[in-house]
Design goal:
Layout (H helix, E strand, L loop, with lengths): L22 E2 L10 H11 L1 E4 L5 H17 L30 H6 L2 H11 L3 E3 L4 E5 L11 H4 L7 E6 L9 E5 L29 E3 L7 E4 L5 E4 L7 E10 L5 E10 L2 E6 L2 E6 L5 E3 L12 H4 L5 E7 L2 E7 L4
Parallel strand pairs: 1-7, 14-16
Antiparallel strand pairs: 2-8, 3-10, 4-10, 5-8, 5-10, 6-7, 6-9, 11-12, 11-15, 12-13, 15-16
Length: 327
């Protein structure tokens, strides 16, 4: 990539309301049997869109489980087949709530769906233990323009995956992608840490594309592809799942609980036993909030015994430390 990041202290931030979508995302279903062509499209365009590829029964179970949670909060009309908004907002901070635990893993681990993930990855796949359950009522917040790879350095050969759990047409928003902009490095503005928003004017304004999504579609986003969600202007609630897949043979992301730490190291109890990792100024530390990096000097004072964390590692070095999410 051309650059690793930007330093533009005086630049205005990109306002998502000013983004004009002028292009249509293309289906890549016809490339599923041709790995080389699939990856050429992915690397060139910055995304892969697959239509109607998730197992219908597994998808229906995931939808019913998510509907059950959001019905309890009065967000959707009880018993409805479609996510008709009941007038209440979804409580903030619920995207990684344990109330959703297990839904994404049940969906991804279904044999037919896992075969799809392995076809995408090109090798046996495993779900990265980072999941967001997206519930966006009309008029609710949107996810600003960002690049996943900037916030999770160190993950090798992984693919961010977005799955609409209900039909999401343009009136409901859905994701938009800056097509072909993944070649230009990271646009995040380091001069405005810790949020590091993307400045206005650095992304080609004619690159933005979206589509009418259907339940059962899968959108794979290149880690360096700028993307964002669009406003929900309908009377329905947008329901989707974000996760990532990685190599099952060479996983670079582990889930663990803190068993000890120093100013420059951390020990975690994982399913593979206790692991210790070094921590330094190159470690992307976001253990208090998944979207906010904290300075290395604050690391030791912020960690707690038994804290659940996700670590992205290279050897014995922690590339990223992140507040854990329930799968």
């Amino acid at each position: 990539m051309a650059v690793l990041s930007l330093e533009m202290p005086d630049a205005p931030d990109l306002d998502i309301e000013t983004v004009k979508v002028s292009r249509e995302l293309e289906s890549a279903n016809h490339l599923l049997g041709n790995r080389d062509a699939l990856m050429r499209f992915h690397d060139s365009q910055g995304y892969l869109l697959f239509r109607d590829v998730l197992d219908p029964e597994a998808l229906a179970k995931a939808r019913a489980a998510m509907f059950a949670v959001i019905e309890r909060y009065g967000v959707i009309v009880p018993g409805a087949d479609e996510p008709v908004w009941a007038g209440k907002a979804f409580p903030p901070g619920m995207e990684e709530s344990p109330e959703f635990a297990g839904i994404a893993r049940q969906l991804v681990d279904h044999p037919a769906n896992m075969q799809l993930m392995e076809n995408i990855l090109g090798e046996p796949a495993a779900m990265v233990p980072i999941v967001q359950y997206r519930i966006y009522p009309p008029g609710g917040p949107v996810t600003g323009v960002h690049q996943d790879g900037f916030f999770t350095p160190g993950v090798m050969n992984y693919k961010p995956v977005w799955m609409p759990i209900v039909d999401i047409d343009r009136s409901m928003g859905g994701l938009m992608v800056a097509v072909g902009q993944n070649h230009r490095g990271y646009f995040h503005n380091l001069a405005k840490a810790p949020r590091c928003p993307i400045p206005d004017g650095v992304i080609d304004p004619d690159s933005w594309a979206t589509t009418d999504y259907r339940a059962g579609d899968v959108l794979v986003i290149h880690p360096a592809a700028p993307h964002a969600s669009r406003p929900n202007l309908s009377n329905r609630v947008r329901v989707s799942i974000d996760t990532r897949i990685q190599s099952a043979h060479d996983p670079r992301v582990l889930l663990g609980t803190v068993t000890g730490w120093t100013a420059d190291s951390i020990a975690l109890a994982t399913e593979h036993g206790e692991r210790r990792f070094t921590v330094d100024d190159s470690t992307f530390i976001r253990i208090l909030h998944p979207g906010t990096r904290i300075p290395t000097v604050d690391f030791a004072a912020s960690v707690q015994m038994g804290m659940p964390l996700t670590v992205v590692f290279d050897g014995d070095h922690a590339e990223t430390l992140r507040k854990a999410s329930d799968n």
